[in-house]
Specification:
Number of domains: 1
Largest sheet: none
Strand content: under 5%
Distance between the termini: 26 Å
Number of strands: 0
Helix content: 25-40%
Structural class: mainly alpha
Shape: globular
Order of helices and strands: HH
Length: about 40
């Protein structure tokens, strides 16, 4: 699997609306490092 930067990921998801984004970070990383908009906490 290719690793993408945050901006590349956003562009990819916009261009591929059927794609699934899986965020496998810990809850603390999700809450305090940041997360994509539109992802419920």
């Amino acid at each position: 699997m290719k690793h993408l930067t945050p901006l590349e990921t956003a562009d990819f998801l916009k261009a591929n609306p059927d794609a699934v984004f899986v965020d496998c970070r810990s809850e603390w990383e999700f809450l305090f490092v940041g997360h994509p908009t539109g992802i419920p906490c």
